[in-house]
Design brief:
Layout: E1 2-4, H1 6-17, E2 25-28, H2 37-52, H3 54-65, H4 68-84, H5 92-100, E3 115-120, H6 128-137, E4 142-146, H7 153-156, H8 159-171
Parallel strand pairs: 1-2, 2-3, 3-4
Helix pairs in contact: 2-3, 2-5
Amino acid sequence: MLGFSLGAVAAAAVAATHPGLVRRLVLVGGWAHSTGPRDRLYFETWRTLLDTDRELFKRFSMLTGFSAGALDGFGHDGLAQSLADAWPPPGIGRRIDLGARVDIRALLPRITAPTLVVGLGGDAMIPMAGSRQLHEAIPGSRLEEIAGEGHMDWFADPGRLVRITREFLDATPVAAA
């Protein structure tokens, strides 16, 4: 099972509470809890922007979701097109609210599946510290950092993430069901 961002939180919770369903686990750009001051400020800011100014919400999301290199790589026209897209999707407010309440620390030691935690070293949305929290709490997990990568960069160039995931899957025996 592979989970990204809030999906990594959900995947970790499933692996902890239903170990028979998860034979190997890959957590990308995830975190263990949103209880810190920075986390609260981020999620509150994100929610306020969504509720008051969707254009600023999109701009803030791009600035924190992508690395500077990825944004520059889009070019002026690519950025303008991205800002013109119909994003955010319906329901994003519920995901923000859920993200603001994450605290799965008590579940993480219960994960028995071989686990790869992939942190994105240039992630301003969910900083690398979130991946370190997951890794430190999941017994026997392996931590990989993709240096300089922003939260969403891998969508534009998934090659490194695919390679790291394949290497993990090829080298890791499947957990007993």
